[in-house]
DNA sequence: TTTATTTGCGCAATCGTTGTCGGTAACGTT
DNA sequence: AACGTTACCGACAACGATTGCGCAAATAAA
């Protein structure tokens, strides 16, 4: 059973294809009786408009592109979950691209998305991306909404977690539990989220009369075996840090592993808090304090914005930034400092 | 800058569209010199064939559909990672659908996929799915490869983990560490993976002269708060279980939480092993023994099979089953039984 | 009755690409 | 000189849907 087309209906009813098309779109210039016949026949033949033909015709492809650095990542898989949910609800399909954190693959992904004539793009920038010419080029064809890793050079709506507030809360919490030398392990310095978190961290320090010490802050793209050496470096400082604040899932887990490997007691020797979406955070040893980002909601919100632009044809979209609240979860890894020697 | 089309090249060179088309496809009936000109012009205009037009023409859409119950799931996000990687390498885009474990959304997803004229389908069945008519229907249009949750009623290649061996190894390991009353928490009984794991569990028991006790086996779709009561039920048995073997990520974590909440010592009172893809398994408290499935490899293998069928046009694909080895990771949660009272 | 106007529908172009067919030279063969 | 080959290229239709335009018939207004 092949998919029914307008032509099939037209043949069946001995009318022209154009009449069928108009009847289905409820055009005023079609006889109500004819409409009824066409509708009936369409449901009988289980007619569905061919999205490919529609795309070619140039109207809309009913498909969205999602470009993220990685799928196999707690944060992004949750975000995509939210995106797919809302998109599907509103009749759009989602095409996924991974950049694996490279600029090159990001460009390739955009090219693909363009070729597919997607109606819009949701993107979280790769860590290599520092220019946005490729995105501006894309923007001339379809609207973009950025989420999580966003660039301010690009005029689009942005949906992000409240990174400043989250980092501020985490840092302040560490200070209130008696920590004074707080190391911050974070990702590439040019990313918006890195800067915002760093700013929050710094603001909390200064609000609490602690000096900002840049030797305590480390940036990087930390592979599986790169966190250990870094932790060693930090621990060699005088005085050594008494707390670690990490900026991603990978870093939190890597740091936890490194600290445990080095037989440091958490939180007795150092405390640890992460910016993560680990659902198992409270099952870790020790239970990991975290700043949780509403990843699913960020996905939902981002795609909702995008679809509003697409459907209301607000081409000149308000490049507003939506900030979603983060939540501080205090667990064992940041208990009060043990002051007994 | 709009995307260049054949027409643009044709106009530029004052030749016909068909000639351009053939020149680019390196047809024998085009003058080498003309070909050169066309090629040069094509690269200059940055021409890319329009996949939409190609799809409409009926040849191939260069897109694959992936249908999974959930994206935000350690196992599936890793599998999709593998799928996307290989697909992208071989020039195919991936369209993702989530069924949220419902038959209805699975049918809807297949309909969408069909409308998009995808060249093939990778599917892991929803837990509600018991009939495969919708898949057979789909099969008449494009090839299917099943992975993980597969149905034997459907003649397609299948790529799965070695569930029997994995479950056997886990169970045997529990027995060798002194356990005798091994509970098995698993998912819906009609799923292939459930049955295979159950069979492996049972075989290991019987090989070791332990009776299979069906009151120790529980099936279900365990929501966030459903694991607790179940654990209570099992612990009320006489004698109570001294080990838990769970069949999924969610169950392993849920069970761990429930046991800890009830102040049972792991592994002193009970030991616990999961069938999971948790990357943080050895960071949990206690470090969780697991049977690890090669999710990424399963994804890679499945998509490779599918693309082979698509490209070699082996429509009558060998419905072979590829079994990928699992790995037993012994950690703290299944240490030797403590025999001191 | 003649002229407007409305109603209802079909024709044909369009989107980008490919396949079928046919045509025109230039050449070689008798 | 007449014919067949070969090499090369263009016109056209088709995929499925939308849309501007035109055309006929029916109705309304003159």
TrEMBL record, chains A, B:
Residues 4-58 form the HTH lacI-type domain. Pfam families: LacI, Peripla_BP_3. Transmembrane segments: none annotated. InterPro entries: HTH_LacI, LacI/GalR-like_sensor, Lambda_DNA-bd_dom_sf, Peripla_BP_I. GO terms for molecular function: DNA-binding transcription factor activity; transcription cis-regulatory region binding. It comes from the Bacteria. Keywords: DNA-binding, Transcription, Transcription regulation. This is LacI family transcriptional regulator.
């Amino acid at each position: 059973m092949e998919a029914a087309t307008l032509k099939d209906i037209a043949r069946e009813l001995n009318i022209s294809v154009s009449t069928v098309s108009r009847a289905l779109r409820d055009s005023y210039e079609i006889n109500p009786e004819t409409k009824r016949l066409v509708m009936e026949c369409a449901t009988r033949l289980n007619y569905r408009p061919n999205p490919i033909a529609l795309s070619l015709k140039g109207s809309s492809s009913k498909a969205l592109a999602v470009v993220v650095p990685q799928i196999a990542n707690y944060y992004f898989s949750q975000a995509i979950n939210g995106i797919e949910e809302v998109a599907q609800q509103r009749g759009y399909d989602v095409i996924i691209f991974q950049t694996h954190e490279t600029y090159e693959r990001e460009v390739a992904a955009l090219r693909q998305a363009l070729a597919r004539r997607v109606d819009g793009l949701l993107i979280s920038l790769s860590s290599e991306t520092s220019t946005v010419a490729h995105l501006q080029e894309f923007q001339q064809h379809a609207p973009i909404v950025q989420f999580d890793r966003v660039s301010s050079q690009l005029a689009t709506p942005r949906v992000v977690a409240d990174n400043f507030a989250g980092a501020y809360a985490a840092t302040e919490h560490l200070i209130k539990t008696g920590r004074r030398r707080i190391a911050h392990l974070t990702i590439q310095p040019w990313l918006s989220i890195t800067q915002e978190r760093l700013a929050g961290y710094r603001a909390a320090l200064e609000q609490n009369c602690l000096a900002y010490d840049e030797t305590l802050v480390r940036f990087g793209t930390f592979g599986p075996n790169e966190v250990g050496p870094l932790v060693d470096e930090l621990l060699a400082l005088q005085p050594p840090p008494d707390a670690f604040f990490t900026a991603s899932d990978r870093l939190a887990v890597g740091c936890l592993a490194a600290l445990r490997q080095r037989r440091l007691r958490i939180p007795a020797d150092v405390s640890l808090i992460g910016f993560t979406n680990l659902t198992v955070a409270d099952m870790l040893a020790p239970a990991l304090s975290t700043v949780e980002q509403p990843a699913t909601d960020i996905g939902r919100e981002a795609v909702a914005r995008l679809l509003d632009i697409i459907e209301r044809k607000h081409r000149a979209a308000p490049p507003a930034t939506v900030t979603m609240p983060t939540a501080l979860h205090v667990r064992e890894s940041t208990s009060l400092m043990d002051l007994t020697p």
